[in-house]
Design a protein that fits this description.
By secondary structure, this protein is α/β, with parallel strands linked by helices. It has helices spanning about 5-10, 20-25, 40-45, 50-55, 60-75, 90, 125-140, 150-160, 185-195, 210-220, 235-245, 265-270, 280-285, 315-325, 330-335, 340-355, and strands at about 75-80, 100-105, 115-120, 145, 170, 195-200, 225-230, 250, 275, 330, 355-360, 365.
């Protein structure tokens, strides 16, 4: 049987895992080995899930043909678990799939990435932190993997691209689908510059149970997990738990005890995650060159060409000091500074235009730099 068709059948087989494939290869196949042409016969002689066995006995050739047409038309790849580019850390996972659908360069997957996870409803400061860490870690030699949702996922991919790296994105649907309209622009760009991975065949829409599957896969294929503003409603807990089960490091960026967005990371640190404040700390722990330099901010707000008016420089700095690095509303700033609400609002507007502060829901503001 043609190798690509064989991989397409394996990828579609319900419940088929990498360990099933390795178990029936008498030669103890390793990464980089080829799949024998009689693999399907060998698999049917092994213990398999009932649905998987039924599929292998009579695969839907129409679906396989459809998958192969999409693969050929879009320069896609189906990676089998014995292929050289199959993620090496993933093979050690007991629940590793027998095959993955991939779009983009597959050589990127040979070096295990760091997973960057966190909230979809990320604060402006959290977005900048995730973006900055992703960029600096990329420059330090790490590859970065993340989901394809809004918030921290988007920040991670933007940071990698800004540093000239190749993002790795994990999808909850077929590679021909775009998960969220608001990230469509990013998806369009990374289709040409990134590696996209999916457990799901082309044409598969996102479904609720796909999200935890994707999150566990992210934790399993990575050398560790970095959490920025982790939230209970996101896939963060699944990725973190998978990393812990596989004894891989978990890093978390701390925040103010008064900031609800920081609660998840602070709890992770209390439970044993490594507290990190600079990318160099992660690079050092993972054995990369220590470039322990402060991250450079990348504002989401376009800066005005003019600088702040010099007579007011000190006063603006005083307002920023009063704001601190946690969400705050105008009434609190008025109380802290003793200035009028009109004056504070006017100064906040200019600081927002200069990218030093960003508005948040509920009429609050968050300092960015």
């Amino acid at each position: 049987m043609e190798p690509l068709r064989l991989r397409a059948i394996l990828a579609r087989t319900p419940g088929l895992l990498a360990r099933h494939v390795f178990a029936c290869l008498a030669d103890g196949a390793v990464l980089g080995g080829s799949l024998p042409s009689d693999l399907l016969t060998r698999l049917l002689s092994c213990v398999l899930p009932d649905r998987g066995r039924a599929w292998l006995i009579r695969p839907d050739e129409r679906l396989i043909d459809s998958d192969l047409r999409w693969i050929h038309a879009n320069a896609g790849v189906i990676l089998g678990c014995t292929d050289a580019d199959f993620p090496p850390h993933l093979v050690r996972w007991p629940a590793a799939p027998a095959a993955l659908y991939v779009s983009g360069p597959t050589a990127t997957l040979r070096a295990a990435p760091l997973a960057l996870v966190g909230a979809r409803q990320v604060t402006p400061a959290g977005f900048e932190t995730a973006r900055g860490f992703a960029a600096e870690l990329t420059r330090g030699g790490l590859s970065i993997a993340a989901g394809m949702e809004e918030g921290v996922d988007t920040a991670a991919h933007e940071g990698v691209l800004a540093a000239g790296g190749t993002p790795i994105g994990l999808c909850v649907c077929g590679l021909d689908r775009v998960r969220a309209a608001r990230t469509a622009g990013l998806v369009t760009r990374i289709r040409h510059e990134a590696t996209l991975i999916s457990l799901f065949a082309p044409g598969t829409p996102p479904r609720r149970h796909h999200f935890p599957m994707r999150s566990r896969l992210l934790g399993a294929l990575s050398r560790g997990v970095l959490v920025v503003e982790g939230a209970s409603g996101s896939g963060t807990p699944c990725s973190v738990e998978q990393a812990r089960v596989l004894q891989r490091p978990v890093f978390a960026i701390p925040g103010s005890i008064r900031d609800p967005a920081a609660r998840g990371c602070n709890q992770l640190i209390r439970a044993g995650a490594s507290l990190v404040t600079q990318p160099g700390e992660i690079l050092q722990e993972l054995g990369f060159t220590d470039t322990n330099q402060p991250i450079r901010g990348h504002s989401t707000v376009r800066s005005m060409p003019a600088t702040r008016p010099s007579p007011l420089d000190n006063k603006y700095e005083m307002l920023l000091d009063a704001a601190g690095f946690e969400p705050v509303d105008i009434d609190v700033l008025v109380l802290r500074t003793g200035w009028s609400g009109h004056e504070v609002a006017s100064m906040l507007l200019l600081l927002e235009l200069q990218g030093r502060i960003a508005p948040q829901p509920g009429g609050r503001y968050c300092r960015l730099s």
